[in-house]
């Protein structure tokens, strides 16, 4: 079985442009005076916290992934 024991930061949102896009997004979100800050905040959502990480939620996602994988292989 797989499990996460610790982590850091929220995962990148879909369609943010991979690692370079995520870095840019974090820069823009961290700079309230940046010309694109308001637009980026609307896109990512007010509740997005780049520093948030939840081990229990991550382990639920991991378990869910492996349950789906096992069902797919049985077919």
Record keyword descriptors for this entry:
single chain; 75 residues; mainly alpha; 3 helices; 53% helix; 0% strand; elongated
Largest sheet: none
Helix/strand order, N-terminal first: HHH
Mean pLDDT: 88
β-strand amount: under 5%
**Category by helix and strand content:** mainly alpha
Low-confidence residue ranges: none
Q: DSSP helix count?
A: 3
Percent range for helical residues? 40-55%
- Number of DSSP strand runs: 0
Gyration radius, in Å: 16 Å
Shape annotation:
elongated
Amino- and carboxy-terminal Cα gap: 21 Å
In short:
The protein is mostly helical and 75 residues long.
Structure commentary:
The structure is a single chain. The chain has 75 residues and is mainly alpha-helical. It is 53% helix and 0% strand. The protein is built from three helices and no strands. The protein has helices at residues 18-29, 37-44, 55-74. The chain starts with 17 loop residues before the first helix and ends with a helix. The model has no long low-confidence stretch (mean pLDDT 88).
